[in-house]
Every structure is written in structure tokens, then in C-alpha cells.
Amino acid sequence: MTALICGSFAYDTIMTFDGKFKDHIMPDRVHMLNVAFLVPELQRNFGGTAGNIAYNMKLLGGDGLAMATVGADFGGYREWLNKHGINDKYVKTIDSEYCAQAYITTDMEDNQITAFHPGAMNHAHTQSVPTDEGIKMGIVAPDGRDGMIEHARQFADAGIPFMFDPGQGLPMFDGNDLEWFIDKATWVAVNDYEAGMLEEKTGLSRQQIGEKVEALIVTLGGEGSVIYADEEVHVEPVKPAAIKDPTGCGDAYRAALLTGLSEGKDWKTAGRMASLMGSIKVASTGPQNHSLTRDEFAKQFKDAFGVALD
């Protein structure tokens, strides 16, 4: 089942600070903050919501079409996509822009400080959801504001079920905007912090949001996740082999969730697939440096949950 992934492609510059932010930020001085962190480790990785989700879906044998606008500096990233067999048909180059860029500093408690330049991502609205590609589901992930609105509208108008994943883009929308997205979406996926923002901005509880869609999925980091569907489904976490970098874990989770849904899995199974994929990602640095086959994933699923992945 083909899924359209509307989101971004970005270069992620990831830096690791071998201390804790809280030990260096003085609460009574935040109005005149001037802090420098020495980062002995630095990596530049391929990232962005569309790229990360497409990469993880490919690992799981899923069929994802990424749709995004990128800059003139996308050449190396496109070679990476081609190398891994990821379809780039709907990746449009804006020659006057750079790709989106994220500069992420992570401390020893997995807290992150991020600076983000949207670049070509702001042109996302210049692309439209194709209706002649056999697309059966989609996701509207963080992207340019106008692009997220247009793609949600186009999915809904075409009758294509889609997941709304506001992520880091959530501050761009007010309560009315977010209610509009919720009313259009089939599923909504957020982390615990974002769920709190959704509640605050819309005045709706998690249960009420869950009643407006087929499911509200809330990830809880190391505590697993909760899926508010016909009933509340609590998904246990999977202990990772190591904790190296949380960047891209949410995208890995969503990729596995979409794959499970496309395969007709129930919420418990799809959630467990997502939980496992997130734990696999966190054990490697960067959003797209982990790899495995579907058979290896199925074995880890059996080891983690004691049941076979049918």
C-alpha cells in the first residue's frame, strides 16, 4: 500500500555536549542568556521528516513516496536516496534556496537545543498531493506552514486517510488551525509535550481529540506510548541496545506505525512495531544511520514482546 509522506528533507548538524544544560543555564538570568557549550562531537547527517520516515519505511519493506521541496545543495542527499532505493519522484528542487538545516545540540540527559533554517521547505505549498499514483494513505509531517495546510486539505478532499503530525511545526498554528487539522485528519500523532500544547491551544482533552479521529497516538519517551482509539491502548517501551542519539526517533516511530497500518495490523501490534523501531533508532547516531532487514526486525519483535509479528 503506497503512502505519501509530506514533510521536509534537511541536513542535521548534530553536536553532543558532554554535560547537562541545566548546570549551565541560570534560571534568574534567562532574560540575558549568553551561553556557549563546548561540543567535542559533531556529525552532519541526512534528516528531515520526509527523509527519515521514508528511510525507516524502506527498512521495514514499506512503500513510501516522499514529497518535499529541497534546495540547490540537495545533490548528496539525492544520491543517498537513490542508493537506498527511495523514490524521489516528488522531491522538487528550488534552485534559489538551501535545503532546510537543523543545528542540534544534545546533552547527557538527551535534552536538545535546536536552531532551524527552513530554506526550501517554505515552498512546500507549490506541490500538490497526487491523486493518480494509487496512494492509499499519507502523513502531513512538519513542513512549511502553507504546505501543511494545503496537503491536509488535498488529502481530505481526495478521501485519502492521513496522519497529522504537527511536531516542531505546532507553534505555527493557533487553536482554530489545530482543530481544523484534527477535523480533517484520520489519525493524529504527537509526543507528550506536544499533546499538552494541543490540549492547551484547542481546549480539548486527549480523550476528546481521540474521539474526533480514528486514533490519537501520544509517545511518552522511555515510558512507551498511549493510543486513544476505540479504547486506550498502552504500548510498552522497548529497552534499546544503547542510548546514543534521540534525533529522528519520532520519525522512526511514525514510519513503523504507518507500515503497521498499511499492513492491516491492530493498534497494539502497530504500536509495538513503532516502539521497537524507535528503540532501534536511538541506539545509533543520526536519523538514518541504522539498518536492518524485515526478518531481523521480526526477530527483535518476537524477542521484545514474546509474540510473532505476523
From TrEMBL:
Record-level Gene Ontology MF annotations: kinase activity
Keyword NADP recorded: no
Listed transmembrane segments: none
InterPro entries assigned to the protein according to its UniProt record, in alphabetical order: Carboh/pur_kinase_PfkB_CS (IPR002173), PfkB_dom (IPR011611), Ribokinase-like (IPR029056)
Domain (Carbohydrate kinase PfkB): residue spans on this chain: 34-290
Keyword vocabulary terms for this entry: Kinase, Transferase
PANTHER family the UniProt entry points to: RIBOKINASE (PTHR10584:SF166), SUGAR KINASE (PTHR10584)
Protein's name in the database: Carbohydrate kinase family protein
